[in-house]
């Protein structure tokens, strides 16, 4: 499953620096991911993905955010630096879900 979307980079509120920067996946795509990964989620409800921002691709996990109902994708500093991004910027993101249920 591929999810292609635009979202604003935001900083986890418990941090005073931008070391924990995320984008939120769309809620409808998050609902579909939840359905497709039933039983495949890892610790903290995470799901393995391959993500792309600009020309940078990396493997990581997305995590459920109970407050918004969406999954959140951490965007590491190396990606933000390579793509000249800062919190508050809107970015185009592609996420490929790697953990899918085998029905």
From TrEMBL:
<dbReference type="InterPro" id="IPR015018">
    <property type="entry name" value="DUF1905"/>
</dbReference>
<protein>
    <submittedName>
        <fullName>DUF1905 domain-containing protein</fullName>
    </submittedName>
</protein>
<dbReference type="Pfam" id="PF08922">
    <property type="entry name" value="DUF1905"/>
</dbReference>
<dbReference type="InterPro" id="IPR037079">
    <property type="entry name" value="AF2212/PG0164-like_sf"/>
</dbReference>
């Amino acid at each position: 499953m591929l999810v292609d979307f635009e979202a604003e980079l935001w900083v986890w509120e418990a941090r005073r620096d931008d070391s924990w920067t995320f984008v939120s996946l769309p809620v409808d795509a998050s609902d579909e991911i939840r359905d497709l990964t039933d039983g495949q989620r890892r610790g903290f409800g995470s799901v393995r993905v391959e993500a792309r921002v600009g020309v940078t691709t990396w493997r990581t996990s997305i995590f459920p955010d109970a407050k918004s109902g969406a999954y959140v994708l951490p965007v590491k500093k190396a990606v933000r630096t390579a793509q000249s991004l800062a919190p508050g910027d809107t970015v185009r993101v592609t996420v490929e879900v790697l953990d899918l249920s085998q029905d």
